[in-house]
Request: fold
Amino acid sequence: MPVDRRALGRWAEQRAVEHLQRAGYTLLERNWVGAYGELDLIARHADTLVVVEVRSRRNAFVGAAEASITPTKAQRLITLTYEYLQSLSANGTPWLGPFRIDIIAIAINRSGRVEYLNHLEAAVGE
Reply:
C-alpha cells in the first residue's frame, strides 16, 4: 500500500482507471490542469463526457471518501469542468454532447487492498 498521500492518490487513480476501462469507458485525459486546479480523470462513456474525481481513504475513522467532497470542492469541480470544455472549443474540438461529473470513492483496508470502490455517477452538479 502506498505510504504518502501523493502516492496513495496515484494508486487510487490507477484503480479508478482500471474500473472505468472494465466498465467500457475510454480514458481521454489524466490529471488535466486548469487555472483553478486539476481534474483527476476525463473519460468518455457512450456519448457522454465524464469528469471523474477520485477520492480515497485509508482510515474509516476520518469518514467515507465520498463525504470528502465539500461544497467548495464541488464548485471547483464544476468550474474546472467548464474550463476544460472551453479549452476544447478554443482548440477547435468543442464537446457538443452531454457531460457529467462522477466521483469514484475508494476505501483501502489495513492490508492495503481495496475494501470498496464506489462509482457515483453525476454526483456533482449545479
